[in-house]
Amino acid sequence: MAAFKNEDNSTWYVIFRYTDWKGERKQKCKRGFATRAKALDWERAFLQEKQSDVNMSFEAFVALYTRDIRPRLKESTWLTKDNIIQKKILPHFAKRKLSEISAKDVIAWQNEIRCGKDKYGKPHSTTYLRTIHNQLSAIFNHAVRYYDLRLNPAAKAGNMGIEERKEMLFWTKDEYLKFSDAMMDKPISYYAFEMLYWCGIREGELLALTPKDFDFTKGAVSINKSYQRLNGRDVVTTPKGEKE
After folding, report:
1. Those residues with Cβ within 8 angstroms of residue 229's Cβ, 6 or more apart along the chain or in another chain
2. 85, 97, 184, 100: which is closest to 136 by C-alpha?
3. How do residues 115-150 score in pLDDT, each as one tens digit?
4. What is the pTM of this model?
5. Which one of 119, 155, 156, 171 has the minimum C-beta count within 10 Å?
6. CB atoms < 10 A from the CB of 12, how many?
7. How much is the pLDDT for 51?
8. Is 162 left (phi over 0), alpha (psi -120 to 50) or beta?
């Protein structure tokens, strides 16, 4: 590897050839580095990513993981995963080599995460701790399955939380009829709850309904989309379940 200095502005750049995922030879040039070392570090990380080298940094592999996984997921699902990755995982492992992270390192990370607090200053729930660990394990599983990492250190370390089984409460028919009777003088709310209760649809699916979704001749409604508010934007996606 070699880096070159741009005498016009005293910055450094790298230019090199590599083989892409199609087996085609490509040339890459990257400019604007403050030092020769930073230019070479960038070139090294780029080539490790292209070669799927498990000696790349954990941070570099997360970029690969993101590229592979994000297109398969709904935006809301990815945002949840990415929030955990950015806030709970990368701050601890970003600069470590993927292949050098051990079960002992994961246990040390778990102990630190257990000491963390939520935005209200309360300890994280055991369900959330389990979710955080599962995301770390998913990253390592991806490396094992597709990039030849030898083993998953998160699986070896074991989970740090348990899934809390919460009791689900349902209205009986009589309870709902009493409620709906009290809502009769509020037509919009009344019809919204009628759809939710009798059709069994989710809130986002209700909010996404349009006049075209109703077939009054057949007495049917099509549930084919769901509404969400993500990062200040209105987002309409496919429903969580199969098309109904």
Report:
1. 235
2. 85
3. 988 888 899 999 899 999 999 999 999 999 988 888
4. 0.62
5. 119
6. 20
7. 63
8. beta
pLDDT at 148: 82
Instruction: Find the length of the chain.
Output: 244
pLDDT in tens, 76-104: 889 999 999 999 999 999 999 998 999 99
Fill in the amino acid letter for 105.
D
65-69, 73-77, 108-112: the lowest-pLDDT one: 73-77
The 3 state secondary structure assigned to the chain is CCCEEECCCCEEEEEEEEECCCCCEEEEEEEEECCHHHHHHHHHHHHHHHCCCCCCEHHHHHHHHHHHHHHHCCHHHHHHHHHHHHHHHHHHHCCCEHHHCCHHHHHHHHHHHHCCECCCCCECCHHHHHHHHHHHHHHHHHHHHHHCCCCCHHHHHCCCCCCCCCCCCCCCHHHHHHHHHHCCCCHHHHHHHHHHHHHCCCHHHHHCCCHHHEECCCCEECCCCEEEEECCEEEEECCCCCCC
Closest CA to 107 of 136, 131, 86, 127: 136
**Cβ partners under 8 Å of residue 138, min gap 6:** none
